[in-house]
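Intended use. Records like the one below are meant for learning the mapping from a protein sequence to its folded structure. Do not use them to infer anything beyond what is encoded.
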Amino acid sequence: MRALVNRPICPLMTRPSRQCERGDEALSGMVLDLLEETLPGWYRVRTPYRYEGYASAEDLLLGEAHAARWAAQPKQVVLKGLCDVLSGPAVACFPLTTLTRGALVAPVGEPDEKGWQQVELPDGREGYTKRSFLGEYYEKPRFSREEDLRRAVTETALSYLGTHYRWGGKTPVGIDCSGLVSMSYLLNGVVIWRDAQIREGFPVHPIPRSCKKPGDLLFFPGHVAMYLGQERFIHSTARAGSDGVVLNSLDPSAPDYREDLDKGMTAVGSIF
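Structure written out for the chain above:
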């Protein structure tokens, strides 16, 4: 059986409880596989990118009918960091919900002359948001040319600059290291493993450190970053003084050099 995420953010916990570690977040409009009901009101679920965790039934629309209805509709993805869906096509209208980057909506018709797009939410409610807040939902790589895809994933990663660190997070409300790199690829139609490791069955594979290019991933014990070129990288870190998505350098002469990461790098990974 499948279920449809019906909240802006659905925490995926490491146990069927709110009082434990968050492993990931599923976003509004994502369809999950229900693997088992573990406790009343809690399900072990699997995401489309094969990550498993425990979700509360409060955050889900349960049943194949909901998932099938939603799967049959065209989708657009929220690209704005935070996006209100309003009850009408005017800024004074009441917000039905506030979605984050990565959430999915179903467009209804075409945008009006003022840029308002009517959309359907997973639970069937209809509202309005600005068309400029939405983008194409990619289920395969956005670009066929390597240079274009590398540029796209690095630009997406840079759009999270300043976001505070949240363990298990993957939105502009809060994001962790693997959430940052996995969302940067996912929004461009490429599914990589959610955690900070190279995992068999996913497209990231090891390459020599000397061959790294923008968009490749830098791995450290329990941490991952994205290489930007010229020895610079972007990552989400809880280190004091950073506390979120920042830029750092592998160049010892740079003021933002991270010696610990430079010398502690365990692997470089690439999808190319």
